[in-house]
Design goal:
7-stranded mixed sheet; about 20% strand; alpha+beta; disordered N terminus; Nuclear Transport Factor 2, Chain: A
Length: about 130
């Protein structure tokens, strides 16, 4: 009975991750945490990530600004830990909804980065 409940919970987590993005997978160690392999993200996100690691230059004035994590969807850290970056959206007339949020002491050496395709409504951890 316990095994059936565990299998059902895992199946639910996997379905939820797949619905979030076809390139997402559920992390077994973190329950239903969504994880993205960098190579599976849209090309624009991969390019933005390269710019982050290189320290810029960034195409948008708000890139590199402090992300406050008001939604509390990311691990709680002191203010200033997270910074946000725009991922260009083809055919969008504005910045679009896609973002990468990275955290760490030095912006160009992030300890962790997250991808959001829906303007902070949900996030997935980016792994190499």
């Amino acid at each position: 009975m316990v095994k059936l409940a565990w299998v059902s919970a895992l199946a639910f987590a996997l379905v939820g991750a797949t619905l979030f993005s076809s390139s997402a997978r559920a992390s077994a160690s973190q329950g239903s945490e969504v994880v993205f392999e960098l190579r599976q993200l849209p090309l624009e996100a991969q390019q933005t990530h390269r710019l982050i690691v290189a320290g810029g230059p960034f195409p948008y004035a708000k890139d590199g600004s402090v992300f406050a994590n008001r939604e509390r969807l990311l691990p709680v850290k002191p203010r200033g830990f997270y910074r946000e970056y725009t991922v260009p959206t083809p055919a969008a007339s504005d910045r679009g909804a896609r973002r990468i949020v990275c955290g760490g002491r030095q912006p160009e050496m992030p300890q962790t980065c997250f991808y959001s395709s829906d303007h902070y409504a949900s996030f997935g951890l980016i792994v190499p």
